[in-house]
Write a structure and sequence with these properties.
Length: 170
Amino acid sequence: YSMRQISLVVLFLFTFSSLWSQDLTSFFNDSDDFFEKYVSDGLVNYKALDKDAYYLDQLLNQASKVSLDALQGDTYKAFAINTYNLMVIKSLVDAYPTTSPMKIDGFFDKAFMSFNGEKFSLNTFEKEDIFVKAKDARLHFALVCGAMGCPKLLPNAYRPERLDQQLDSK
């Protein structure tokens, strides 16, 4: 290989990595904004969100562009927790008004989120991806199910740089 070819490959990889990192940073920042706006005392303001569902759709669209296989460690865990919780919220907004996810037929089994062309249901994402890849029992207390008896939501996004502190506080 010539020095020019190697330089072009390095430049491409650096540019791709930088853009991908910016997209992920944007997702965490936008998720922070979302949770701060719609979560109070661990509960989602579904009435307000029902009128502004576009914001949630944009967040999930942003998440769907991230390659799950490319994420590792705390970055993967934080991304997966936020995305899963947003998926639950989206499912409840789509069924609004409802009193419980358990009253929605197939709530956890309907495939609707797509990553790299593969469709995921809440159950698939949780059991076949998150818990297989993350292997962290604390996630049980961070993933919400949308029912009153489930863990409370934080009023901000889970972040890789403070994930242990966030999970330990649950």
